Amino acid sequence: MGVHPAARAPLDETALIGRARAGDREAQDVLVRVYLADVYGLALRLLGDEDLAQDAAQDAMVNAMRALNGFRGDSSFRTWVLRIAANAARSQARRRWRKREVALTAVEGLAGEGEDPEAKAVVQDEATRVRKHLERLPRKQRLAVELRVNQGLDYEDVARILKCSTGAARVNYHLGIKRLREMMR
Length: 185
What we know:
The chain is 70% helix and 0% strand. By secondary structure, the chain is mainly α.
């Protein structure tokens, strides 16, 4: 089995988006493959349920491909897709009213394979504590922390996704971190 040509060469996102807009299915498939993990990761963090996150990620990617002509380039394509993903996750949560659990990080990989089982248990306990406290944050603070910590987004991208100013994104992030620290004491 060979490597897909798009996987060998650096991604020319602008050309790929242009081809996808023109109806090139292969270009659309490449865009989906490139961004699906980020979209799913965000949906999982927001919904806390793998099945709901898969549904939201699928909805987000379908919506993004349908709305491709609406992408103006005011932000990065990744930011645009993540905003769609956040909206899809909110819609999924409204459709299926369930308790949401937000995962700050995947516990697997936090402790090395050779580490003591007791150390792994401590890491897992701490991750569980953080998730529980994160759930208690106000929505915008929780999202700002999630997007900065888990997605590695800058404040401008966080602001676009939260539909607020960059300053408000910074404030929400810092207040969220401050509250988490206070709750963790």
